[in-house]
Design brief:
four-stranded antiparallel β-sheet, Glutamine Phosphoribosylpyrophosphate, subunit 1, domain 1, 9 helices, homodimer, alpha+beta, about 35% helix
């Protein structure tokens, strides 16, 4: 993936496409990487049919939506993050605000909710009827039968590079579907769910947070780019090395998927699964969705065709029968 | 620091000395690194006069003690962590239990408290009269006058190496004194507060969590050891590189202190402050406390003499007048 670009935006999953398109417009108009990343993540949080982020996100085992989000400015290295927060319309905006604080920049649970409310961030019931139906169905099929309920943990992670060569990254998720109340994954965790250094590059991850945290995958990818690897080399080598380590040491590896971008706007993608999609835009690549397939220690990339995109839209809006 | 050792234990601060002594006895008797690390951290949590960890820890701005802890097994890479939990006697035991979980291994706030209670972990009012007096005094001197209240953020981090060459690390803290409710630092965050890989080494940090997280300092130190640096080289170069990056990019750097140990039992220490102490024991070094002083890009180490040790004991047990 070598592109000559003076701006760029890449994000995990198809769900980021609309946000990536709008972020691309902002970046092309010389807006700041931070503004573009926040805008893109907010688009995903606000869309009710994306069931793993923000409004419409799937709840924990008790039926409550608990959200995690983070923002990192790769120029100042400032980080803000929230975890396990309920009833906040846009966790990414709280994370952005916290990144401006010298102290108390990572906040969790009730304390984070109170602070966000005191600061005037919009409160909102985040559980939709649709997400509730998903929950009731899953609960009946798993918990009520004594089976493991865990499935689904798609985080949106957006990396932006502006024309001033600033890199930023934002993440947001409702976390592992059917998680225990209070469970936090990699998304708000520096170095695991995200990392950005404007002098090198940025990376963001999605998959099983418990396993991504065992390898500090985003920091590792940025480190590898810093030692001279291309984004694609860094992403593939770091992801498959971590998978190998997890299997040999922990006995198994959950889903691991990443996107990254260097300070020149070149990007890389790697995944251990077969249905990972991502969204990207650069001066030479209008906002588009790509699909990936694993091929040994490599990740193959192909454009999503219109049939796939239509099937996706049908699937996410189809009726959910409890 | 080159030692020929087939076991070892090193920990941040003087407060770990008793725990390090007992961990050394366990390791010498061929007990597992995990058991020794947990035991050492628990000693610190239980001692009422250590005011930044566990029972007797200093509270948040509302006068509530909120605790963070983590445990990592460097052989399996398993991690368990809790953050922002109240009224739990030994957060490190909850972290250890969570490290055995495939899912939901990092838990925060009320959800973590409920899980710990359901699992039968001891509940305890963690605010002592002494810590309350510290709080009231500090509040009167700062918050009540509109001044910044932040000071004090000493985490205990204990690294153990057993005779089977397993490395483990445990951390525990009451976090930044006068923090906002819900604030979480680096201590429960993989790669920032701690990291361990039994094939390479382990590291743990103390200082301003907000800044330690900007550099994933513990993961970086283990990476440097993995690329061939001695523990002392890895600790010093990583800490002073991060300090330089923080000053040039973020505009300032908080306190940064680390200890690390490699898989051969050699250890390293680095700090940006002048009063950092640590506790260590190996087959050739009975459990002892050392003091450090910064010298440019190096950290000088000297044994704590009996006068210092006595003054310490006097200081931590002296009456606190509100």
């Amino acid at each position: 993936m070598t592109l000559s670009a003076n701006w760029g935006v890449i994000a995990t999953w198809r769900m980021a496409w609309e946000g990536v398109s709008e972020a691309a417009n902002l970046l092309q108009a010389n807006k700041a990487a931070g503004e573009a990343a926040i805008h893109a993540v907010k688009c995903v949080e606000d869309y009710p049919f994306y069931k793993s982020v923000g409004f419409g996100g799937l709840p924990n085992e008790r039926g409550e939506v608990e959200l995690d989000a983070a923002f990192m400015d790769g120029t100042s290295l400032a980080i803000g993050a929230v975890a396990g927060v309920r009833n906040i319309a846009n966790p990414i905006l709280v994370a952005q605000a916290l990144s401006r604080e010298r102290f108390n920049s990572f906040m969790v649970g009730g304390g984070a909710e109170e602070w966000a409310q005191a600061q005037g961030f919009e409160r909102k019931e985040m559980l939709t009827e649709r997400a509730r139906n998903h929950y009731l169905k899953r609960k009946r099929e798993t918990l009520d039968r004594g089976l493991s309920p865990y499935t689904g943990h798609d985080t949106v992670g957006v990396i932006t590079l502006d024309t001033q060569q600033n890199l930023c990254v934002g993440t947001s998720t409702s976390g592992l579907f059917m998680k225990r109340p209070g469970r936090v994954g990699d998304s708000p965790v520096s170095g695991s769910g995200f990392y950005a250094d404007s002098q090198i590059g940025a990376a963001t991850a999605t998959g099983l947070g418990e396993d991504l945290m065992k390898g500090c995958i985003s920091y590792e990818i940025v480190s590898r780019m810093g030692r001279g690897m291309s984004p694609q080399q860094a992403a593939e080598s770091a992801v498959y090395d971590l998978e190998t380590r997890l299997i040999s040491r922990f006995g198994r590896a959950g889903d691991l998927s990443v996107v990254c971008m260097n300070a020149r706007g070149e990007y890389g993608v790697a995944t251990t699964i077969d249905n990972f999609s991502f969204s990207v835009a650069t001066p030479s690549q209008p906002a588009a969705v790509f699909l990936t397939a694993r091929d040994g220690k490599h990740t193959l990339i192909r454009p999503a065709d219109s049939a796939w995109l239509e099937a996706y839209q049908q699937r996410i809006t189809a009726e959910v029968i409890q």
